[in-house]
Every structure is written in structure tokens, then in C-alpha cells.
Amino acid sequence: MKVLLIEDSRLARAEMKRLLSSETDIQICGEAENADQAETLIASTEPDLLFLDINLPGRDGFELLAALDSAPPVIFCTAYSQHAVRAFEQNALDYLVKPVEPSRLSRALDKARQSLESERGIKKQVKLGLHDRVFVRDGERCWFVTLKDVRLFEVEGNYSRLYFGSERPLVPKSLNHLESRLDPQLFFRISRRHIVNLQWIAAITPSVSGGLQLTLKCGEEVEVSRRQASLFREALSL
Q: Of 42, 73, 117, 171, which one is least surrounded by beta carbons within 10 A?
């Protein structure tokens, strides 16, 4: 399991490396002192897990995650406990308060291993395409919907909202999970917040932020992030 340490304190990074040294399946693939360094390393090393401090110089840990189109699983590691609720709203696997106890770290790593094993199992499954039908439940309401009719998937906390017809059900699955199940040739992750059904795109225009603006056949507009725009162009070009 490749781990990236994101922590501005050199001593705190050294202590985490010492604690992780006894874990034979852990490979520390990089260290970052701030969000800018972390963003570059995440793209180049593709870690399986982030150990992330919240109080970083410049952008904080939450702002870093907001800038990523697809974030690896995260274990927050901070000196303060008051951010725990917000951390779990960001799909955090765990929240460790420094100084970290070895037994507490061990339990957090077990969660990470289980999550990674589950994710690998999902990736081995056959990808879902336009003509596959899925069962969707939101509270007491249920649908059996064909994926060609789902035009958009949107992150909402630990859940995802599906857009089909006039319906907007909320399902207890992360957008990362849904992305791993959907055929990437048909459903594209345009930003950290959205996956779009390519069949529903009616028009594409440049956006003021440097990305792209998509107009769907129903008239709704969504933005492709600047980071994903070049990949999006490649996916749709000859």
C-alpha cells in the first residue's frame, strides 16, 4: 500500500515514518509540506492512502481535497479534534489526533486495507454500461433505472445524487465508488463533484475558469474542471 504523508512539521513526519516502519505492507511514496507539493505528488505517485494534516501553510487539508478531481482514501492526522465531523463529511477513513498511539494507528490502517481490498474487488467487476439496469432506493421510494437515462451523478457529502427524468434520488455510495463501477468510455468524471453521461452532452463551450462548460440535452449546465478538461478533449477526439 503506497502512502503519502502530507504534514508541514518535519518532526511529525519523522514520527509517522517511525510508526509505519513496522508495517511490512506500507511503502511511503512521498512527503509533502504543503498542499501545492501534495497536489503534484498525488498526480505523480498515485498513492493508495493519504495521511493528511489539516492545518497546512497556505491551503489547508480540506482545500487540498476540494481541489482534487478524485482523491485517494484519507486518514486525517492532526493535533486538533474539533475538525472531526467535517473530516468524516469528506469521506475520511479515520481521524487521528496527535500524538498518535500505535494501537490507534493500527486500527486506522486496518480500515485502509479493507477499503483498498474492496476497491480492488470492485475494479475486477464488469463495468456497467448504458443498457444495464440498476436498482435505486431513496428512503421509501424505489426505481429500477436504465443507466442510459441517468445523465449526471453528483457528490453530496458521503452520498451521490443521480439525475434521471425529473428524479433526484440520493444513494449511499461515494462518487469514487460509482466511478469505479461505470464504463469510463460512457461516463466521464468531469470534476471532483460530477460524473456525466457522455450521451447526454448537447454542447461544449470554454469556461471562464479555463475548463469547459457542458450543456446537457435537458438544458442543465455543468463544468469540466480545468484539470479534467484536457483528458475530456482526448476522450472525445478522434
A: 117
Percent of the chain with pLDDT over 70: 93
Residue 91 has a pLDDT of: 64
On whether the CB atoms of residues 16 and 32 are closer than 8 A, the answer is no
Domain carrying residue 67: 2-124
Residue 118: predicted pLDDT? 74
How many domains is the chain built from? 2
Domain boundary among 124, 145, 160: 124
Q: In whole angstroms, what is the distance from residue 204 CA to residue 185 CA?
A: 18
**What does each C-alpha distance from 233 to 136, 184, 203, 206, 226 come to in angstroms?**
31, 14, 13, 12, 11
Of 19, 17, 53, the C-alpha closest to 38 is 53
Do 218 and 159 fall into the same domain? yes
Is the same domain home to 148 and 69? no
Contact 153, 200 (CB under 8 A): no
